[in-house]
Amino acid sequence: MSVFSSLIDQSQVVEILKDAAQAAHNSNDLSQVMTSTWLFTGPPGSGRSNAAIAFAAALVCKEGGCSKCNDCLSTILGTHADVELIKTQGLSIKIDEVRELITRASWAPSVANYRVVVIEDADRLTDSAANALLKVIEEPGLRTIWLLCAPTLTDVLPTIRSRCRHLSLRTPSTKAITNLLIERDAVDAKTAEFVARASGGHIGRARRLATDANARQNRANILKLPLMIKDIASAFKAAQLLVDAAKADALTDAEKKDEDEISKLKEAWGATGSKMASGGSKAVKELEKEQKSRSTRMVRDYLDRALLDLATLYRDVLLLQSNSTDSLINQDLLEQIKLMATSTNPAKTLGKIEAILKTRRNLAQNAAPLLLIEALMCVLR
């Protein structure tokens, strides 16, 4: 077993990374097999971040990624001294963060042969941050490896991607995800197959649906929304319900985490009662600002997930209108799907799917969520 065992249905990528890690350990100089800058792309849930972290572990592990030693385990946990793991919980990665990162990346490795930097959301770099990063990857240090992750090549500046070795991960098959859930998480076969289809190839989403009854119920509630839309008023009501549900989920997930972060920060600044060391209040305000940005992103992420669920519903409607029932995702909602299929035609169904996908794109561009969802529900009506 190796660190690459967590990559599902990505055999070609795994072979390339294993060869590169071996070349890195066998040579003092980087070569065509092992380069200094890599770009991992793939759809959500394909495992692009997992691939980058596994590769980082293989580079710092003396055995090339055994998954059992302290180097591998600390890399996966994000605590290795020579591995920088950058994952933003906000809407963007700003230039100040990148400048600090570049400074740390320039340090010589302390215990491993390489210093490895993993940027999980390279697509969220601001233009100024991306340009700052470009300067350092144009002339990388001899012992620094940069691993960037993004959904697609077009999400990264052309000048950056032209200097990277590109690896594209594919969406794992339904069968591969089903087997993973059965073997790793002891999920029963029927549930595993259903959530593998419902997740759209997103391994993390499939696991959450399989192990969290609330997540399955929330998904079921979302898929019922189209049936309640009868007129403009009900369309607006459905939009409000969807946005409120996303905000409630984000608040539930963030509330305790926010409190713990504030408490630990105040403790670090020597808080006694309402007093802190000089600079403490400013640090708390900055953290609260980051938490607000994170909360905004979480709401958008929940809405995006809901839109994907709605897209699977209309996909099934379109299949039924094409006289096909073999690959329905939401087979538990067959009666609802039949009702929707007979009340419209394929052209209109396709238009609704396109409207959902357009709403997802606009949501990613930071448009106002409620206005977007209201407009979409009017189209779905």
Descriptive account of the structure:
It is a single chain. This protein has 381 residues and is of the alpha/beta class. Helices cover 60% and strands 7% of the residues. The chain folds into three domains: 3-168, P-loop containing nucleotide triphosphate hydrolases (Rossmann fold, 3-Layer(aba) Sandwich), CATH 3.40.50; 173-211; 232-380, no CATH class. Strand 2, helix 4 (95-105) and strand 3 (115-119) form a beta-alpha-beta unit. Helix 4 packs parallel to helix 5, helix 11 packs antiparallel against helix 15 (369-380) and helix 12 (280-321) packs across helix 13 (334-342). The mean pLDDT is 86.
Using brief descriptors, characterize the structure shown:
single chain; 381 residues; five-stranded parallel β-sheet; DNA replication; 3'-5' exonuclease activity; DNA polymerase III subunit delta'; EC 2.7.7.7; DNA_pol_III_delta_C
CATH topology of the largest domain: Rossmann fold
How would you characterize the largest beta sheet? Answer: 5 strands, parallel
Return the CATH class of the largest domain.
Alpha Beta
Going across the biggest sheet, name each strand in turn: 2-3-4-1-5
Number of extended strands: 5
Mean pLDDT: 86
CATH superfamily caption of the largest domain = P-loop containing nucleotide triphosphate hydrolases
C-alpha Rg, in Å? Answer: 23 Å
General form: globular
| Helix percentage range | 55-70%
Strand content: 5-15%
CATH architecture descriptor text of the largest domain = 3-Layer(aba) Sandwich
The SSE order reads: HEHHEHEHEHEHHHHHHHHH
